[in-house]
Amino acid sequence: MGAGLLLLFILKGGKRNKRVVFIGIGIAVVAVICLLLFPVLVPRESNFPRSVHLREMIWTEAWHIFAARPLFGGGFLGYQLYSVHAGEAFRVHAHNILLDMLDNFGLVGCALIGVYSVRVIFHRIQDFHRDRMIPLFLAVLLATAIHGITDVPILGSQSGTFIMLLLAL
Known about the structure:
This protein is an all-alpha fold. The protein has two domains: 1-41; 47-168, no CATH class. It is 71% helix and 0% strand. It contains seven helices and no strands. The longest helix has 30 residues, at 97-126.
């Protein structure tokens, strides 16, 4: 979300926003230093190595699911259905937006979604000077993409916003 907010301020421009960007970067640097020096500030930090290990296992499993049905995937909720059958119902998504989409829709579905998304994004960027909402659109898109690297499923509330923005255009 921080990267999205930073992009939003940069795209909105103006002298005042440039000061806000520098202040924001300063706050982010101080926050990172505080988190490194005082890890107790982040309750999940103590569980970080286990979380990384679990995600690596989930990503390996997701890759195997994709490899079993690479063209069309396992269908909507493909990863979740596989997990339920494997007795791992708590794993409802692949913890990576691309792997989750590959498991669900395969290469064909991801290609279609990708072509549509790129087309929409470029059209929105072309309207940058006419539509005041473009910076917000791009900021949400960036925040979703960054979060999607390690957690967000295609149906998640965070990426659901991204999909709704794309579909609403």
